[in-house]
Write a structure and sequence with these properties.
alpha/beta; BirA Bifunctional Protein, domain 2; three-stranded mixed beta sheet; 6 helices; 27% helix; 27% strand
Length: 245
């Protein structure tokens, strides 16, 4: 799908608002996404939002996932105090922990001239670009969405679209505790999860990766400029939420 012709007004409206949220419980972040989707659905410009955060341990299961993808018993989940959340997003079963960056673009896809295939490509190209800037050789697999490297899968997709406004998005393992990742099967090849730090054999800067994500995703989605904020005034954090499916 071709992009609309830019003019002066379009360029002024083409701002991506980037919010660096730190570690946020999943339910609070989901409520913020829902608010932003509602807000953008009432606009007629190209303004978009991007949430970048980490989550306390939680397992989410998308439309392609099932209970069979869990590799642990309910008793182990209860002992670890980790919840399971079923979602209407693409992708399968994913484990989220600190050290993994959650990337949630809330974008008016039609108004920025993107179809669903374009949007998926933009997410994957952003993850590939981050890996390249981190000097990690990475590639895509025809059988599964996401990004792969020598030691396993480092990038995951789990996007959703409502009334042509995107939400949910992608996840990149920067430096998580990979023991948590063994709690579920994350791809059809049954290959393990890995991280940028494991691939590079040294610690990877979260600040540097966040900056790369914001800059690369803005460019992939046709935004001429982006603004970075720490926190969001509408974010209401919850002390603790454990939702067993």
């Amino acid at each position: 799908m071709s992009r609309p012709v830019s003019n002066a007004a379009t360029v002024r409206d083409a701002a991506l608002q980037v919010y660096l949220l730190g570690i946020v419980d999943f339910e609070s972040c989901l409520k913020l996404q829902q608010h932003l989707v509602f807000d953008l659905s009432g606009r007629n410009d190209r303004q978009g939002a991007l949430l970048i955060c980490e989550h306390p341990p939680v397992i989410t299961i998308g439309r392609e996932g099932s209970r069979s993808h869990l590799r642990c018993e309910p008793q182990e989940l209860a002992a670890r105090e980790i919840g399971v959340r079923w979602l209407n997003r693409g992708g399968g079963c994913l484990v989220h922990v600190p050290g993994q960056l959650a990337i949630y673009p809330i974008l008016p896809l039609q108004r920025i001239g993107m179809g669903l295939a374009d949007y998926r490509q933009a997410l994957e190209k952003t993850l590939l670009g981050v890996c390249e800037e981190s000097r990690v050789a990475a590639w895509q697999q025809a059988s599964d969405p996401g990004i792969w490297c020598r030691t396993g899968q480092v990038g995951f997709l789990g996007a959703a679209v409502k009334s042509w406004i995107s939400y949910h998005g992608a996840f990149l393992n920067v430096a998580p505790d990979l023991d948590w990742m063994q709690l579920c099967q994350v791809n059809s090849l049954e290959r393990r999860s890995s991280s940028l730090s494991v691939e590079r054999l040294r610690q990877t800067s979260m600040n540097g990766v966040r900056e790369s994500i914001a800059r690369l995703l803005a460019a992939e989605c046709g935004y001429h400029r982006y603004h970075i904020y720490t926190g969001h005034p509408l974010l209401r954090r919850m002390k603790k939420v454990i939702a067993y499916a």
